[in-house]
User: Fold these one by one.
Assistant:
Number 1:
Amino acid sequence: MKNHLITVLFTYIAFPLWAAETRISSPDGTLVLSIDVSQNISVKLIAGNTDVFEIRNMDMFTDKGHFPATMRVKKVKQSSVNRVVQPLIREKTATIPERYNEAVIEFGDKTKIQFRLYNEGFAYRFLTDAAGDMKVLSDNADFIFPDSARLTFQKDDRYNSDYERPYVTEKIVGMANGEMGNLPALVNVAGHFVLFMEAGTKDYPVMWLKKTATNLSTHYWGYPLEYNSQGNKEDRRRVVKSADYIAQTTASRSFPWKVFGVADKETKLLTNQLVYLLGEECKIADPSWIKPGWVTFDWWSRLGIYGVDFQAGINMETAKYMVDFANEFGIRYFLFDSGWTDGEDLSQVVDGLDIPEVVRYGQTKGVDVMLWVVYDHFAGQMEKALKTFAQWGIKGVKIDFMNRSDQEVVDFYWKAAEKCAEYKMVIDFHGAYRPDGLRRAYPNVLTREALIEFEYNGFGNRDNPDHHCTLPFIRNVAGPVDYIPGTMNNASKDDFRINGNKPMGQGTRAHSLAMAVIAESPLQMLSDAQPLYYQNRECTEFLLKIPVEWDDTVPLDGAVGDYVALARKNGNDWYVAAITDWTPRKLNITLDFLSPDKTYQIELIRDGINANTTAVDYIREVKTGVKKGDKVNIDMASGGGWIAKIQVIR
């Protein structure tokens, strides 16, 4: 990872003790933060002539006292940064401009509060300087919005949350006292969109939002004291009793960044990368072994195999069949999901399965093997398990059922990322809280869940096109999503049926293919049993040529929960994707992002004329002579989509 420093300007300003306000502007001048410390710490975000929202009562209470202990300002340091960051994993872009103006206010007790204002939003964090350790009792802030503000978030009130609740939209002023949910959370206010996120969470719990009598405020779950020790492997570490403090930590440290993406149009959120920029620098000396890619896995897919001469299941024949499938379509990984272990010892494998032999076979086919593990097992056996996995030749793990966001489990994420990096294994976190910048420090953390994804079609209808059109503006802004796109088992709203073993996907065939571009992730899981892909080879070959890394991302059009269209570039190729909710929709886009001196070919898959009622109906077209500035008309069915690959021909 390389950071190219263009300009760094430091300005030191010593304020007299009575100074109460500090103002900083975004680099482009469109946003202003007015920071007031006359009574308590508060900040107002101003866009043009509009006061967007305020944050008040920003402080911390600990067993060592209140931070800051005094509102007497010792000094204020202001600085500006303009540089370009090159991420190791190209999630949205090959380079990320990082431009911000910063103010660090130091109080008389050496407590500091640090603000960074970008063109895309702002962030702040506390820094304390006290001796020894401390218990943090509360980390406070009240978020003040006008009565017109509407909040879209995962409403939830569970300590042991799986972070898989549907997004709901409510007027903040009408929310019930005590109503709460997790981040990211989007507020539509005063002609702007404010996205609550968090970055740099380490040795500390994850922040939630809670409605108080009149405002939104911070909420943190207490430090865990007792667990559901008699539970099964999936809920044994469910917390049943917690402390009246939220963290046990050193008293001299920097705390997590509270992050607020800000845009005057929701499509601008699609390229927001503040969470990544505010994460810690890469801690892996040589990360060249980290390989993004597509994954086929055996959970429900083994239940849909037919036309073979073996009994499908967790066995050698099935595993090699899936490796052969991966090899044929250029898929990088095969994942053994739930069921491969014999009991709770991660070094023991069920009868009839020889994982080292599967790995050896995969190596002859250019396919790497990953393993699914449960948090409870992995946390207790981490070093032993990883040593065994390394001996077998495993290249990655999918860790599931953390289902918490307290300080202890946050520490587990960091430890797992570090230890897996030592053994050169990539990670997919499931049953997980949302991304918070860990992937910058440990880019082997390629993706995570924290959303309703495709599997929900096996037991409900929450994974629907309305949800798909919400994800890019909220959850995907914080970081990659393991959505599991590309089903060939497509259903209209009327035809959809629940089948846990062979789940259908809601929306059209073109919609499901477009999700591989819309739902951004460097590790993309295939959703179906392999015979469905063989049976639909034209779409499969199109799907599995879609990259999982991108050099550029260009928002084209969209509205939260309704529709979205964007273009992504990999090398010289562009992919354009659009999806709609259950409302049929027409879009007109202009190919302004193409190079002016080149001619292109466009290969597209769009909804067929009967896709409104028969969701598998699609049309593939190829056109040549496409140039920059050409207009494209997109006509999408109910739950429909549109996807195109645009290649240079001269």
Number 2:
Amino acid sequence: MNNRTKRVTAFLAAAAMITATGFAPENGAPAIFDNASVVSYAASVGKVQGLSTRTPDISSIKLSWKSVKGADGYSVCMRKNGKYPEIADVKETSYTVTGLPAATRENFKVRAYKIIGGRKVYGAYSDNRNTATNPRQVTGLKAETINGGVKLSWKKVGCTNYRVFMYKSGVWEQIAQTTDPNCTVTNLDEGTYRFKVRACKVDDRPLNHYGKHSEEISADTYFVGTPTGLTSKTTGISSIKLSWNPVEGADGYYVGMRKNGQYPQIADITGTTYSVTGLPAATRENFKVKAYKIIDGQKVYGDFSENWNTATNPRQVTGLKAVSTTSSTIKLSWNKVGCTSYRIFQMKNGVWKQIGTSSVNSYTVKDLKAQTQYQFRVRACKTDDKKTANNHYGAYSDAVTVKTDKHTIENKNGVTYVDGILIANKTYGLPSSYNPGGLTAETSSAFSKMQKAAWQDGISLWVCSGFRSYSYQNTLYNNYAARDGRQAADTYSARAGYSEHQTGLAIDVNNASSSFAGTKEAKWLEKNCAKYGFIIRYPQNKQDITGYKYEPWHVRYVGVPLAQEITDSGLCLEEYLNITSKYSSF
């Protein structure tokens, strides 16, 4: 590289340095500047190092840095809108920025300069330094005594958080940090305690900057026990009596009743019992109790007891009566009252015994004897919630006396009718001459309606076996008896003259075998057949009564009202009519 090239390169480097480090003429200085001097001096202005800060109070920050060799002064800059405008031109290596807001973050840079030919040539900026002013002193510190503790509060000041201090064993110890201008100190023994608070501002590094401690405050703490043994007695349809164990040293008790998830006070008493009155009948209510002591004229409350739920009693049931009777059933009804359920009682051997419950205002008493007088009464029950599951009862209704009907058993031309219902079972047979010529018109029509309804539900039903003559049944039964023996055959097939199929009122649907059980067709049939006048003639678990095993495919037409009543009763036809189904001989 020749000398000319070296000079050009040096000039370009100097120009670059002026751009990088800065050059500014003094006011009134000549416009012409020696480039060689720029190169020489700019290169000698070093970068400021060791910029640090100290925050002496709430409105000032003192900056300090290491001196730069040969520097004529320093430009102190503070960030504003993303830039660093100059706030001071100083000769020393420290500067105090004043007039700042309390508890605010600030950011600074410093650069050195030399004066060359009346102009300032700047070195590089120092690394930026962020810091913050101190928060103001916390004022307005107050203390409220609570059970086994103190609730502190103070006036809000600008800061990042607050530090709470308590005097312990001769030393102020920080016990809490909070962003809110309040703090609750708990688990304190009875005694006198001292507290103070100061605010803290955290800068970006992060470092903490603290305000002065507040004035200290003293507070006395007391312990108020929690009531135990809260219980209740329901004294009527509109009142509940509460009671609990006394709390030592308590001056009184706060009684709360739940409303919208809270326990607003309903009574302030000195005793340990309280009767809540004016409540609606049969309503669940929930209570809590807490004790208090009076300290310097103020009530200091303990913790709430565990909640206690209960209910008022229901009203007395009225209007009890029998709305229908048969030879073996009595259907009772009564006026509705607010309650969880009703309890039905029957007089037996001079004693009232509960025989059932109902969630509605009616109940059917079953398995009664024909032409027999019975006496009943009912009362309402209200159950409180699952925690205690106690029952609360209303007064008994007036008793009602009802007599069951007499069965009318008629035999017309060898055919038996019980209460007008044609019967063919193992007890009551049909003459060989009885032949309606097929399914009765009423039975066929009802099945057709049921079949269409099932089809709309996606269920296909058809007649697998309908009417069977005496002779056909005779052949069928004898074949079964020859194959399985008469004892086995009698469990699933009727002897000639004892088959419901001979009546023209019975139908085997789809598939007369055990594989039909549990199918979607069988389930639909069991659920819906009563709507069209059919019953499942041989229900599950009724073999000892009907004489036949469970046949979910076998339905019998009895008409819609009777089919619905029999189905709702849960009885088979023999139970409903109080008749037997047993062959007189093997």
Number 3:
Amino acid sequence: MFWKTIGGLVGAVVDGDGRSVALGPAASPLLRVRRFARPAAADRPASRRVPPRAVARGSLQPLANKWRCTDGPAPARRAIAPEGLARPSGECGEYGGSLRYLIHTIGLPLPKSFRLRSVCGIATVMDETLIARAIRKAIEGGAVLAPPMPALGDDTSAVRTQTDIGIEPAVFETFVSELRADRDMEKFNRLFANVPHGGGVSVNLPNIARVLLARAIATDDVEGTVARFSSYVERNATSSLAVMGISGVTLDREIRLGPHISLMPMSSVPPSMQRGWALGNSRPGFAGFETPVSSALITQFEYTPVFYLPKNPQPPEEMAAHIPTHAAQHLLHEARNVLGVLGIHPVYRTFWVQPVDWLMSSGITSGSQFAPGGFYERETAVPVEQAEAIAAAYFELPARRRNDWLRIPLDRLGRAAREGDFADRAIDLGIALESLLLRDTDDRGELGFRLSLRGAWLLGENETQRLEILASLKALYKLRSKAAHSGHVERSAKTSDTIARATEICRALIAKMIELQCKVDWEQIVLGGAPSNSFGSDDENGDVFLKA
């Protein structure tokens, strides 16, 4: 009552962007902010002018700088949302206003019972009591968890119990109607959800209603379910698991590869429809995989926004979910490739994203990538301690240094190990070694000699070892040149031995580079000095300068 009275007395004020915003009975009993016509500056009383205010804070600042309002005459106009979150009002198609700034401007305290929410930056107040009451009424009306469907597989049935219900149509219609009475819940009929693999999908209130009701029944916690959902909507962000299915390795427990990546049996990944397909529990009509996917690399990441109000179904590029998704996928590819230092070369089979909490599953379960083929000779056991040690050292390197120095060598080493043709193997090994040992030089003369010499001095510990490494690398480089120019090399025991030995040396060189943090002084090394990670210096972007 207090706020309704204040709204009626205040009538209208001006926000930090100079827009007229009204409070009052027309704005609803829940104190909604509505957009009204913007009066000319000369018509606004001086006492009601509000100075501009900074909008975004913290890590959102770079993103906020890209978000400009496009429906007003001022070129740099920005909308303001609760908790200082900026949003692209022109992209979302609706002006959000600044309820918190408005309250601060007129000097009124915010009652603790008010819980501000943001759906793509729209100031909202979600009535959790109304939502909980509607859920209880639906449960009393006979709502139950969706029954399992064995024909679709155990994983699909598990997802159904998290996201769907069994309910009489009339009871469900009443349930949705009661949720629609909350204007913030009704907005879901206009919202789209960001899809990690690209684009967006329509949300709609009935889908949200089913997930809410299913989780409330499964957890036997109506208030907790509503509170969690409300907090997720407030942040408009969700935690997700990026899962990369791989073949070619065997393990019986989880292995930590770096600070945020795990390698585990596929059966240990939380259930999802994609996991069911990877394990061979295919749905009817889905081809699935010729052989089950045995293992998985996973990492957890967060993206925002989850929900948005579009002018078109595609989210703006700067807030599209596929950007953090691709970053997570790249991280998993790095972890897969670094196992090559140990002589283990897993084959990429599939990639998908699934929610950590199925309460925020909108859009996340849409799409996945499949690579059913792939060449791998055997399933290799992963040495736990060695794998964790090499991955920890690798991921301690700055991301740019890893990308500049080790991405191509590791990728080409993996290709060479998985390919069957000797010519392809020789070419890939040659590329890996050139990228690793010659990336600092523009002089294209005597590449084979320089590559062999550097490799021998970097890796060899005495004259005998250096001479053997020098000979092996020179033989590989000749083989690589022949393959590149003629497209063919002789299939013989000698060729096989040359490639096998060069592969071992390449792995050892990459491991040495990781140990040295990609910092070497080639002049000192080729003159007989010991390698040391004290050589070289980082520039401001994390790159490394090496002496030629």
Number 4:
Amino acid sequence: MAKQKHHRAKHLFFNRDESWLRFNVRVLEEAQDESNPLLERLKFLAITASNLDEFVEIRVAGVLQRIEDGFVEKNEDVDDGLTEQERLDRLIDQTHAFVHQQYSCWTRQIQPALEQEKICIRPWDELSNAEREFALDFYEREVDPLLTPITIDPSHPFPRVLNKALCMALLLKRKRDAAKKSILGIVTVPRSLPRFIKLPGSDGEFYFLPLHELIAARTELMYPGYQILAKAPFRITRNSNLYLQEEESQSLLETVREELHNRRKGAVVRLEVEAGSDEQIIEQLRTNFELERWQVFRTAAPINLSRIFELYNAINKPTLKFPHYEGRPHILPPNAKDIFAELREHDILLHHPFDHYDTVESFVQTINTDDRVISVKQTLYRTASDSPAFESFAEAAPNKDITVVIELMARFDEDSNIRWARHLEEAGVQVFHGIVGRKTHCKLALIVRRDEDGAIRRYAHLGTGNYNHITACFYTDVSLLTANPEITGAVQHVFNYLTAESEEETFDPLLVAPINMAAQIIELIDREARNSIAGKPARIIAKMNALLDAETIKALYRASQAGVQIDLIVRGMCALRPGIAGLSDNIRVRSIVGRFLEHSRIFWFANGGGAGEMYAGSADWMPRNLHSRCEVVFSVIDKEAFHYLKDELLGAYLRDNVKARLLQPDGEYTRAERTKPVFSAQQFLMQEKSTSGPERTKNQATTRSTGRKGSRTAKVSNSALKRPTRPKAAHRASAEIRSASSKRSAITAAKKRSHT
């Protein structure tokens, strides 16, 4: 009976929002890590600020919205059964503490280090006469024409301040009527201008003036007749969730366009204001935006650390950045005159950015370059504003059959996707928006070609990442190019589902959400549990961005209790609690945060022996991916592709002891112990020679026989795939949890220890 109580659902999961904040802490640790180049540390800090913006305008805003709507029901399957108010109370303290860590990193670590490299952000009152003259000339030419000073009085209501726009608030008093009360003035800092103005200086010196300081220095000219009593830069963050009534919408595209305008008008969730600002200004802003006191964040300068990313691009000091890296191009074998001939022989697996993304773009663009290509179908979730692939669709549309499924509700990319949808429709491309109520998140391209022998064949690209040549340079993703009839036929069935909502009895060898993916993933996990009980080999290695789905986590717990060894590589949020005796003591969770953003989703199951089964795809193990989106996970059948994913890729990530953090039973992360040899998975993959198909086979056969470079890869695989020893910290935490009088008291004690 006691064991049954130990497994009560409300204690099985970590809070997803707190788990996300811990992920952002891991990114911040990269900014604090002095082994990273200085400007890369600055970039990591900017990323944490951008991440936090989205967290506030989506997650925190969502909690506030549910509280306002009177949502009080507890969900025992997630977040330890917290109410919305309990969740908010915890997020308040943690978010304020995180912002304090961010600015401590900036003011105590990065900014002083920049100054040692002669990179300085100069306040207005410290500029030389020559620098002021330069700045004032810039102001007259570039800034002043864009400014609209506003006063707040009975005839001028408070302006509609844009989401995340930096503004100057001024406390004003009329000179000719000193008896009147002071009023507020607002000036919006133009978004179209750089936030930092580069000042003239000697070679190797980089001096910058914040744009808002230049504007503040000229406010007297904007408000003649007023005495300026105080100035305060501020920034607001609004609720940016889109609220769509899709069932009532005749046009999803028009609805999204309308809601994008509404996003700018969302309720204010956060006010950032420079620390030390006049209290009267702060109170007037807080009252106007109807904010609680906890929603005011008093920060050091500069407000909005995400904009310091501009400095990274403006400073030409290669020694302060990671060395330039260019992914390896795919080279056709001598016996293949084009990529289609090679695909008829074997699949091609690419691992971006270690393999160059040009191969994928070239594959899609054959619609223009190859007369034998008859048609193309492709999904689009996020793409670059200058995507060459989709320009090629527009050019080829008059002569070829082209179908594109565009997801209009890809958060923060709606504007770009609407423009592409309009552009492609005008060019004659058939544009669809997927299944109403479900985002189309799968990454698929299908080419139909009449080959040289007269036969019509299908060729497909299936990926884990978006069709975006920019993000492909710093997101790690997997691409599979194949002519396998089973896979390409299943891909066509998926497109039929997206355009006509026609459901096949089976999509084998694909798993398709929301139709069968959730159930099949749980079956794959349960099969490992049955194999373990039967004494057969049982093992799971899964790499993903987030793990939040309650039923999938419960299946992993069951497998752990059955003796299945489970290694999870989860970059971001993870609600699963590893290392709990009798529940999850056979599960280990690690997170890799490094130079590249880990984005690939790869899943391997031992399946009772032999090589096992390998899958990759677009879906994380989250409720929205498994139940509310159109997703595809594909089986990796090609032997060489299979072994690359298992032995080189997953093996490397499990061996990493440089960028890996290990999730502890109390929810905290500790760095992996740096035992020798020190090993970084991303560095290894950057250096390792990677080829496709026959060339890879030949190289691997040679290195296996000579024991040179191939033995290095084999060593990674063998050592990484052994059952890892749990860190001492995990053993201690498990012992403490076992000895606690109750599970709840143990969790409370562990969290108190982690805070001290």
